């Protein structure tokens, strides 16, 4: 087994987890753990600045009470001098190192080298790195979201216990969703002398007060109960589970609004008191379903952590022959019952949300189909009217074509008659002249017949040529060419 933290001090060159004398599960590659931590360093840690809050307690010899102490250690101090001098102090009951993020989805407020120094000095087992990787810079709650719990019990009554626990808290923003998903990383190493070393990632002021109260209660149980170092974990789990009643009530009210819409809306006919259903309602209920699913995952993680804590409590009791009068067993049982109840409530909300989503989708689909059928009927009516109008137009066109054809025939006949009349026009003109008084006084030796044909024939030839040119359009071509 690796040495306890206060027996052998790590060297300044020791690099966690490659060179650190800490526990690693069988088959785990420390080099890969080191590489992953180095690759994700920019997202996990600050480049410079930050530090760690150190809290510890010393026991007063006179009144035997714990006196809490606090100190902030910068990253530069940790990198230069380490943290060895803090556990060399006598009479401390617990040491607690707290690393806070810059904001909810931000980096851990410490440098990578300083954080590695702390891990190496405390000889923290490598499974805790899985908890560390759930923190760092994020863009949403679902990124790197994972509920983890690990423990290791050693033969010398020493154990290591770590987990990442997520929970819901009111954010107090006054806008948008009043609830936010938080997470806290917890690590504890309890030595055989019932001293504890803690490393906490991201915990609130309320959780800090509860942990302080838990450590004070733990000090009263030291020596009386072998599982007393687990008392703070019960306080942490109780803190994480304290808002389930309000949160499930809030989710239930939101689901109830959509459920009322789904069960009260009519499909075939819309009344004045009917709800206005939109596709946005389906989107909102689907988003609410995702939120409830996340909450179900969160409470599963809390139940898994509680179960592992209960098993560790049983193991510690099994190693101790002293009779214990603490109520940790009953407290764990009550917390287990509460979490099971809220888990069942969330599962019920998941089922209700799924049914409501399906019903709302079916109503909208049916209404859309009805609207589509009405539109199709209107379109078909319009098409029938257009077809009827087209038939009427076709008949009118046929009549116009018949009239036009008849007009062409009549025009051709008139043309032929006109040409015939034009051919006889010179003869008529000459005959008119001969019947006038112009030729009445002429000498009698003139032959009027020969004179008539002499005048008529040339005029007739000229008229025929004019008709030919007019028919062929030759005079128009010459006219256009000249112009």
Automatic annotation (TrEMBL):
InterPro entries: CorA-like_dom. The keyword Transmembrane helix applies. Keywords: Membrane, Transmembrane, Transmembrane helix. The chain crosses the membrane at residues 412-434, 446-470. This is CorA-like transporter domain-containing protein. Residues 29-256 form the CorA-like transporter domain. It comes from Hyaloscypha bicolor E.
């Amino acid at each position: 087994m690796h040495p306890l933290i206060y027996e052998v001090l790590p060297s300044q060159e020791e690099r966690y987890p490659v060179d650190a004398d800490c526990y690693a599960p069988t088959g785990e590659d420390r080099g890969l753990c080191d590489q992953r931590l180095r690759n994700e360093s920019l997202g996990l840690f600050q480049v410079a600045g930050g530090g760690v809050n150190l809290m510890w307690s010393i026991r007063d010899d006179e009144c035997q009470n714990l006196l809490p102490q606090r100190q902030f250690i910068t990253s530069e101090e940790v990198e230069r001098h380490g943290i060895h001098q803090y556990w060399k102090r006598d009479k401390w009951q617990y040491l607690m190192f707290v690393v806070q993020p810059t904001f909810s989805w931000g980096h851990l407020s410490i440098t990578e080298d300083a954080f590695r120094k702390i891990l190496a000095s405390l000889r923290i087992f490598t499974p805790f790195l899985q908890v560390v990787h759930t923190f760092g810079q994020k863009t949403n709650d679902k990124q790197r979201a994972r509920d983890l719990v690990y423990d290791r019990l050693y033969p010398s009554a020493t154990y290591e216990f770590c987990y990442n626990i997520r929970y819901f808290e009111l954010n107090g923003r006054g806008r948008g969703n009043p609830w936010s998903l938080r997470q806290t990383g917890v690590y504890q190493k309890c030595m055989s002398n019932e001293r504890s070393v803690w490393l906490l990632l991201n915990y609130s002021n309320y959780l800090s007060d509860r942990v302080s109260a838990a450590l004070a209660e733990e000090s009263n149980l030291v020596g009386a109960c072998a599982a007393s170092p687990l008392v703070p974990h019960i306080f942490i789990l109780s803190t994480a589970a304290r808002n389930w009643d309000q949160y499930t009530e809030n989710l239930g009210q939101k689901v109830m609004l959509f459920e009322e819409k789904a069960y009260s809306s009519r499909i075939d006919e819309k009344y004045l008191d009917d709800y206005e259903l939109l596709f946005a309602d389906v989107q909102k209920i689907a988003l609410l379903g995702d939120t409830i699913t996340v909450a179900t995952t969160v409470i599963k993680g809390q139940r898994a952590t509680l179960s592992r804590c209960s098993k560790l409590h049983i193991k510690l009791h099994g190693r101790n022959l002293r009779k214990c009068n603490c109520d940790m067993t009953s407290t764990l049982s009550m917390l287990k019952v509460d979490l099971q109840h809220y888990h069942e409530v969330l599962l019920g909300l998941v089922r209700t949300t799924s049914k409501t989503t399906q019903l709302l989708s079916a109503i909208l689909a049916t209404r859309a189909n009805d609207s589509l059928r009405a539109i199709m009927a209107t379109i078909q009516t319009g098409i029938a009217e257009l077809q009827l109008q087209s038939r009427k137009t076709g008949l009118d066109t046929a009549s116009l074509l018949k009239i036009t054809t008849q007009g062409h025939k009549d025009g051709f006949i008139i043309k032929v008659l006109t040409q015939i009349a034009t051919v006889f026009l010179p003869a008529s003109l000459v005959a008119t002249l001969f019947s006038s008084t112009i030729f009445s006084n002429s000498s009698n030796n003139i032959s009027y017949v020969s004179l008539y044909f002499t005048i008529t024939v040339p005029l007739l030839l000229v008229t025929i040529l004019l008709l030919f040119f007019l028919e062929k359009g030759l005079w128009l071509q010459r006219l256009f060419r000249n112009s």
